[in-house]
Amino acid sequence: MADVLTAEAVEQELGGLDGWSGDPTGISRSVELAGFPAAIAVVDRVAETAEQLDHHPDIDIRWRTVTFRCVTHSVGGVTRRDVDLARRIDEIIRSAR
Length: 97
Ligand SMILES: C[C@H](O)[C@H](O)[C@H]1CNC2=NC(N)=NC(=O)C2=N1
Known about the structure:
One of its GO terms (biological process) is tetrahydrobiopterin biosynthetic process. Keywords: Lyase. Pfam families: Pterin_4a. By secondary structure, the protein is of the alpha+beta class. The protein contains 3 helices and 4 strands, in the order H-E-E-H-E-E-H. The protein has a 4-stranded antiparallel sheet with strand order 1-2-4-3. The chain is globular and about 35 Å long. About 25% of the residues are buried.
């Protein structure tokens, strides 16, 4: 069972990510893409990565703005797996813009 990160550890990890905020209850990032199809394309790539990692973000899609939230539901808090997933989401967003 993965450990929930401390507030200090989450704070430190946020510094290495692009535009994420949060605390040990969850970390999130919103991104505005070129349009709805571009937003869906990013979500589709994130879905593929999430399946590979067997770790899935909560996703909110509003026209071309997508919000990703990473938390390990099974332990009720942010773990290393969420930070790793967030990093992968950043890579996908970076390559899509
Ligand atoms: C069986 C499977 O490993 C689990 O249900 C996984 C799937 N993806 C998951 N994703 C997230 N974010 N939290 C989980 O607890 C989780 N559990």
